[in-house]
Amino acid sequence: MQRKLLILISLLIVGCAEKNNENKLPEEIILSLSGKEYTPPELTATQQAKLDSNLQVAIKNFEALPSEENFIWYGRRQAYLYNYQKAISIFTEGLKKYPESFRLYRHRGHRYITIREFDKAIVDLTKAAELMKGAPLEIEPDGQPNKINKPLSSTQFNVWYHLGLAYYLKGDFTNAEKAYLECMKVSDNDDLITASVDWLYMTYRRQNKNDEATVLLEKIHDTMNIIENDSYLKRLNLYKGLLPVDSVLNVTTNNEDVDLALATQGYGVGNWYLYNGDTTQAIEIFDRVLAGKHYAAFGFIAAEADRVRLKKE
Q: If 0-12 CB within 10 Å is exposed, 13-18 middle and 19+ buried, where does residue 303 land?
């Protein structure tokens, strides 16, 4: 009886949005900041099977025990299948049961960024930052393991990182700077330092704090051990003048995901042109990024936000 009840709750969680919003777009469709509809890219049979299998495991675990952790994994596994609205619904239900969970706020905030609801993301991530005060740094498990199969980021890092991103995407660079400075404090390995420096550098440049941006680049050196954030490192070396523009924009088949690398590196190149006063070239690069398929990538969303702002100028 208990198992049947949990299954029913699970189905209600993922289905209630559809029943209450019959006249809205299908859940898997995301609207861009300019009103364009994004639909999930096609997956290979192998990719689909793996993601489906992982989701079934998460559902089974959730049905057996609807714990904070299992709410999180149930939502995360839905998001990896591009079911972002379902993921948000699951995190929301989890917060009803675990209202003090900064982890659930962190993950829901991330997915609000994905669906371009930046204000809601800021509310969630600000709440997460408040709730996690005083908590020891905790490694956050990876849903999609890196090449050494070792998680590198903490929950605290991810809260500040995504909060800074949400402010950046809104064009609120003052608050983005504050968040990324906090993010720097919990960046305890080269990959996290690279990610934090990259976004803080761009935040400084958007505020014309060029001296601070230049000093910040001194944290990037050629002996860094980078596992995940090679694209960020390339952007930073472009900003330092150590890499030519073409080499950063030239995404080769050596990349595991060429389209994702283009979204990340391309956004950096577009920024580089923007910083150097070539708005026409910046727009061309941003449009090239937006022609890709990875609409949930941060570089993609940032290119989209900048493209919308540039149209208004």
A: buried
Please give the backbone phi and psi of residue 37, each rounded to the nearest 5 degrees, phi first. -90, 130
Element (H, E) at 38: strand 37-38
312 in a structural domain? no
Give residue 116's Cα distance to chain centre: 11
Please name the amino acid found at residue 56.
Q
* Angle of helix 84-97 versus helix 68-80 axis, rounded to 10: 170
Q: Mean pLDDT throughout 21-34?
A: 72
Q: Domain count of the chain? A: 3
Predicted pLDDT at 118: 98
Same-domain check for residues 129 and 227:
yes
What is the residue type of 207? Answer: Q
Condensed to tens digits (0 to 9), the pLDDT of residues 195-248 reads: 999 999 999 999 999 999 999 999 999 999 999 999 999 999 999 999 999 889
- Encoded amino acid at 23, one letter: N
Q: Residue 227 sits in which domain range?
A: 119-140+150-231
| Digit-coded pLDDT (tens) for 170-186 | 999 999 999 999 999 99
